[in-house]
Structures are given as structure tokens and as C-alpha cells.
Amino acid sequence: MAAAQRAADPRDPTPALAPGCNPLELSLTPEEGYLLSRVDGQTPRSELRQIGGMSAAEVDRCLERWAKEGIVDLGGARKDAPPPPTTEGATRAPSTTGAADSGLSIDASLDLSTDFQQQIRDFLQRIEDPYHEILGVDIDADAKTIKKAYFGLSKSYHPDRYFRKNLGPYAVQLDRIFKRVLEAYELLSDPVTREEVQREVRAAEAAKQAEAPAPEAPPVEIAEEQPPVLESSAEAPPTPPPPPQIKGPKIDPRVAARRLKDLRRQKARGGFVDRKAKAKKYFESGMSAFRQERWLEAAGSVRLAIAFDPKNKAFRESFAEVQTKAHAERAKTLTREAEKHLEMRDYGPALRSFEDAIHYRPFDGELLFKAAKLSWQLEDDLHQAKEWGVAACEIDPENAAYHRMLGQIYKAAGLAANARRELQAALRLDPKDAEAAVELKGL
Questions:
Q1: For residue 158, what are the domain limits?
Q2: How many domains does the chain fold into?
Q3: What is the pTM for the complete model shown?
Q4: Which of 46, 94, 99, 318 is deepest in the core (most CB within 10 A)?
Q5: Which tens digit of pLDDT belongs to each residue from 42-52?
């Protein structure tokens, strides 16, 4: 009643999402995503202005801008409009995430194979599955298995792999899939968040079992318990016949099952509210760190927010941007470490630092090139060096140095035909590449 009165108060209007607006299709900062998640047709503007993460003036500017763009109705939800899609606590039906509702159809003119287009369509059908199912691993999989699964999926779904490619409507969905894969990997790789995720999955399974209908059974009669007969060392008189049993009330198992289910729901609800409160606290802490450019701290806090409230789409939408910043910072730190090791001629640790940096920036051509070159010089693992060299050439096929390096790797591996092809490509791109010319003559 109070909410309805506030909504009707013109001095404190209740903003709502405009009909047909889908928050998941908008490009928002983490703070904006969190604010929009609270625009629900129930929360008045005065309360929105007190939400952590943004000042009251920033909230007002966002709301006014969204109203002009047709995203938000500042006067509240219209009675004749359908309820806006929620941004938290709702489980989407398969059709809302499926390929059909995404407007995807097979298009042979795109720079994606038709088989891979179908893979994307299929993935979208299960994009809201639990994290371990997204990665295709067991719920108790170890860190090594999780990392391997992530790398396998990132090779196919990382948007940077398709730079300058014509993806049509698949570009947005490819980015959406990779964000979900990254989210799954990060939350399952962190021991703290993995524990919370596993607890959430098992709680959901237990709740599903509790929802199962009670088996049909006839009412049972419960007899009152009789006091035990005390033994005596003296000769006991003959035992009198037992008194007739006094029958208790009949209990219908279905009624008992409903009562038990209600108790479980009450208990679960209390835990649910507590987890959401923790999630909000972690998210606001993460946004504070994000504004101060403490990317790693921000990412850790938002991971915890998602672990405690995995249905909150605002948290999840913010995570991708936060995690991208954190990955870039981590890769930069590892690259600096690798360069320092090279200066000290400490080549083994340098290669390991480059390899770790690639983990955070798997489609950084220059990083792949440096790692491939060092691995070739050390003759450490020519197969891995080749993988990095091929990836660098795929990212920047017009870079002569990348082709020359790949040619040198093939030459060291005894693959003369492949080496010749790459070295010739390097010379076509840069006829003055003397190193490539010398390598080619030596074949």
C-alpha cells in the first residue's frame, strides 16, 4: 500500500522501464547497470537517489537521459503496459535466450562457418545454465580442468578472434556468450566464489527435490508411547496384560509434507535475503574500487557479489567490464615481469611470465609474438611456439615480423614447406626484411 501511495505522489514519482526495453541490450557502465536494475516500477526516485555507487546528481542525470532515450518512464509504469523485464531474481525461460528470439538465422554470407553459427544458436539456448555446465566440467572439477575448459571455449568464442570480420547479428551474441564463459571461469577459479557457487547449485537441487509431490499414502495412526517396564531383582508378579492402545489423531502424509515444505521455504527465504544483502555490499565495494581504478580489487568484489546473488543481471553485466580492466592490468604486470627477466637473461621465468600474461590477453598479437620468439630461441616447446605464432598471424595477417617468426619456428621443426610459405609471405609484406631473406636461402 505504501509503495502504491508513493508511486501516485507526483512529488516523488516512481520510474519504471519503458515497455519493450531490454536492459541486456544496453551499453552501460557498472554503476549505470546497478542503478537500472533498481528501476522496477516500485522504487521511488527519492530512494534511487540514495543508492550507493552514484551521487544523487548523477542519478538524476542518468534518469533524465534514459527518459529522453525512451529507456525509462519517469512517471512510473503505465497500467496498460506489460510489466517491464526484471533485472534480478528472475529465471528467464528458454525462449527468451534462444536463437529464434535473438533474431539469428543461418547466413552463409557472413565470415563465420554455418556450423559455427549453429553452435552459437545452440549455446544461446543454454546460456543461463549453471557455470560448470557452461564450461562443460563437473561441479567439483579442479582448477586445471576449469582452466583448460575455459581456454578451449575462448579459442572459439573470444570476440577478438573475429576482429574485422563480418559477423552480422552474431557479433552481439558472440560477445554475450564470451562474457558468460568468462564469468563462469572467473567464479569457478576463485576458491571463495567457487564454494559459494557450489553451495547455490546444491541448494537449488535440494529445493527442487523439496518441491517434488509427496507420495500417495494412506493416513497412519500413531499410538501413544507406553512407559517402559522396570525390572526388579525380586520375583516379579505375573505381568498383567497390556492396556489397550490409545490411538492418536490421524495424520495425512500430504499435510505433513506441506508443513515441512513451508518450514524449508521460510528457512530458505531468510538465507536468501541475507545473501542478497551481502551481494549488494560486495557490489558497492567493487564499484567504489572501480571508480578509483583499483581493477583487481573491484573484480574480486564483483565476483563475490555474483556468487551471493547469481540471478542479478546488473552484477553480471558490470562484471565483464570490470574483469576486462583487471585482466589488462594483470597482463601488463606480467609482461613487465617478463621484460625484467629478459634483461637479467633469466629466460625460463621470462617465458613463464609471457605465458601467464597470454592467459589474460589471449588475442594480443604482440604478446603472442614475443612468447613465440622466446620459445623458439630456447627450443623449449616448438609445438607451443607454433600455436602462438599462428595465433599472432591470424590476429594481424599483415605483419611481416609475425610471418617471419612463424617461418623460423617451422624451419626449426623441420617443416620446410610451411617455413617457405611463411617466409615468402613475410618478404611480400616487407621486401627489405633481411632476416627473412637469409632464412629463406637456408632452406
A1: 94-189
A2: 3
A3: 0.54
A4: 318
A5: 778 877 776 65
